[in-house]
């Protein structure tokens, strides 16, 4: 993991390589690391999410994202999720609604995060 300040906000970036994140404890571990580093936002590569995350019926997305919301840690999922969105209208709706909010964002590129964190 690396820490970076983006427009005055401390961001913890998870590396591209690493174990898949798909359980509540995985989310809690990431949140703990972020808190230890003083981060306010975590970026997570979309490729590190367990495949079940993108099947909303599995409940994995809800479980993981609820941890971030409960602990007031913002999450930016970085990477192309268009194939998953194309396969599920419900996921597309979920991604659009998340991007309208302030806690969880699905972004294609880190520069989009900088725009979101701009004053």
TrEMBL record:
Residues 7-117 form the DUF4180 domain. It comes from Georgenia yuyongxinii. This is DUF4180 domain-containing protein. Pfam families: DUF4180.
